[in-house]
Design brief:
By secondary structure, this protein is an alpha+beta fold. The protein has a seven-stranded antiparallel β-sheet. The chain is built from five helices and seven strands; from the N terminus they run αββββαββαααβ. Strand 5 and strand 6 form a beta hairpin. 31% of the residues lie in helices and 41% in strands.
């Protein structure tokens, strides 16, 4: 099921803001390993703040065969950020043109949802 999310890649992530209002945005699934999905966001974004505050997230996506995947869980910030960011960029080479060289480390933070 999680591999379907990786194949869809751009999925909707919902969190709750500091006023209790739902917030949703499209985020790329960067890696899938076992029962975990990996994604990243910039440290200065509201999404990052919402994840760090509560960590609760709901995700949904639909593939070309109209199979919908929906799940929820808790996201957490990973240790060894540099290693995970490097791995995400290695698995998703298009990210290199958006965040060239060391700029990937300045703004990005890897997170994981279980």
């Amino acid at each position: 099921m999680l591999q379907i999310l990786r194949e869809i890649k751009d999925v909707a992530f919902a969190t709750v803001d500091d006023k209790g209002m739902p917030q949703i945005r499209i985020i790329d699934i960067m890696l899938v390993e076992g029962e975990k999905i990996y994604f990243c966001t910039a440290r200065g974004k509201d999404f990052y703040s919402q994840l760090m505050c509560d960590g609760s997230v709901a995700i949904t996506g639909m593939n070309r065969e109209y199979q919908m995947i929906r799940l929820n869980g808790k996201a957490r910030k990973l240790d060894d950020q540099k290693m995970w960011i490097d791995r995400i960029f290695e698995e998703n080479p298009s990210m290199n043109s958006v965040y060239p060289d060391d700029s990937r480390y300045v703004r990005k933070s890897a997170s994981m949802i279980l």
